[in-house]
TrEMBL record:
Originating species: Jejuia pallidilutea
Classification via Pfam families: 2TM, DHFR_1
GO cellular component, one term: cytosol
Domain DHFR stretches: 149-224
Protein family membership: Belongs to the dihydrofolate reductase family.
The protein's name in its UniProt record: dihydrofolate reductase
Pathway assigned in UniProt: Cofactor biosynthesis; tetrahydrofolate biosynthesis; 5,6,7,8-tetrahydrofolate from 7,8-dihydrofolate: step 1/1
PANTHER family membership: DIHYDROFOLATE REDUCTASE
Membrane-traversing stretches: 32-55, 67-87
Keywords, in A-Z order: Coiled coil, Membrane, NADP, One-carbon metabolism, Oxidoreductase, Transmembrane, Transmembrane helix
Length: 224
């Protein structure tokens, strides 16, 4: 039987970068620790060389033995090394922070572009839906729609003659009765002179007066 190959875990670029930076950081701290140990051993050797072995015993600066200045100089170098590891070069460093910031900005921009595309698609779907609804909305059938009717009644007598002796019908009793019966509940359209010939507007009717006078005054309920 063939043995199954073990699948090695895949490490993406960001994880690999973190591992590399962590390894670099460990090396920096190891060097700092080695420097500190070397500094302690060096200080002891300098003190022994001057005080025990008598090396440079007679050499002093401002009345202070030379090994003191040597230790101070070395201490300054160690402090500089310490500052460089923990302050100047942090765990990831400025370059790494700038790179991560650029990645975040790129991801945010990609997210914004994705949202814009989603909004465009949503607008297109909404527009298509509105068009579909308009197309499927049943239009009113003009044939079955009840049309409003306009009734035109001419002031005619029973013999269909208008007036008698060139007189208006409301001066003729029988014709006026027939006119009132026909026009009850309807609009009456007439000219200004015809309207003025009425003693008063007829009840249960809407009077429509046609005139060229823009300031013509009529009673309430009369349309000009």
């Amino acid at each position: 039987m063939f043995g199954k190959k073990k699948q090695q875990p895949q490490i993406d670029k960001e994880q690999l970068e973190l591992i590399e930076n962590a390894q670099k950081r460990i090396k920096q701290k190891k060097r700092l620790y080695a420097h500190f140990v070397l500094f302690l051993i060096g200080c002891v050797l300098l003190i022994v060389a001057n005080t025990v072995l008598g090396i440079g015993k007679d050499f002093t600066i401002a009345g202070i033995n030379w090994f003191v200045y040597a230790i101070l100089i070395w201490l300054f170098l160690f402090i500089y090394h310490l500052f460089n590891v923990f302050i100047t070069h942090k765990f990831m460093g400025k370059a790494w922070e700038q790179k991560q910031l650029e990645k975040l900005v790129a991801k945010q921009q990609a997210r914004i572009d994705t949202l814009k595309e989603g909004l465009k698609k949503e607008e297109e779907l909404q527009a298509k839906s509105e068009v579909f609804d308009e197309m499927n909305t049943p239009k009113p059938n003009l044939k079955t729609t009840k049309n409003s009717q306009l009734t035109i009644i001419v002031a005619a007598a029973e013999n269909n003659a208008i007036g008698k002796g060139n007189q208006l019908i409301w001066h003729l009793g029988d014709d006026l009765k027939r006119f009132k019966a026909l026009t009850s509940g309807h609009h009456i359209i007439m000219g200004r002179k015809t309207f003025e010939s009425f003693p008063k507007p007829l009840p249960n009717r809407t009077h429509v007066v046609i005139t060229r006078q823009t300031d013509y005054k009529v009673p309430l309920g009369v349309i000009v």
